[in-house]
Amino acid sequence: MQNDLAILPFAHGPAPTLTRIRARQEQKLRQVFIGLASICHVRQGRKRVEWGSRHLQCGQDVLLLIAPGMQMNVANLPRAGEYAADMVSLPSSLLERFRLHYPGQGVRSSEATALVSVQQDADILRAWRYLLDCIRDDAAADLQCQAAEGLLLALSLRGVVGGLLRERGDAISQRIEQHLLMLAPEQRSLERVADAFHCSVSTLRRRLAREQTGFRELLDKVQLGQALEQLQASSLPIADIAASCGYDSASRFAIRFRQHYGLSPSELRQTLP
Q1: At what angle do helices 250-261 and 215-233 cross, to 10 degrees?
Q2: Range 17-167 has CATH code 2.60.120.810
């Protein structure tokens, strides 16, 4: 008697996203929040990052692996008048799917390197190029996810996956950051988030207070991070970007952006090609 094997479909979530960053002048940004696990390749120029007491500088020969939830100071440094980089962000559902396919790949936060540069060998370079091709050609979402898994596997085989697969633990603030990133701006209310986490608004506030933060601070971090990405990667008017990220006033957005990053949205735009 022949056994029938059930072939499960590839149950993907959101596909990885590609942000292409360019500059013709040096960019210095402080407190840059990277909400999702991300992989960056500098195609021209150099990138310098600082976090805590550590710093790292990388160029065209490496991939920069950034753990989810990182906040760091960044300098994008042009060469011959241009800085160019590709940044791929990996949604948490894709990382969970990878762990299911390859058990034991996740590591505790305390054991993971939050930010690391990796030399590209033939397998890593091939997997990276294939992932970029899938995203740029708008391949089916499940193919994009599989390509991202292939890159994670190539990195894992080298033992250099760093903090991309780190398990972020039980901190409610970290879980809320991830949740907010998946929501549209109009859905990012305290009440909706409390409901999603099956608790009252007052309970959620108390839990965040124990971690020395609050909902407004987490929301601000997520909104500013998305605004920075749109300013660097699109030509949308600043007022439209402010509105799309959840800000009611373009002027208040500009003030808050400058307070956080150290330069205004218009000053950042002046560094772009």
Answers
A1: 90
A2: yes
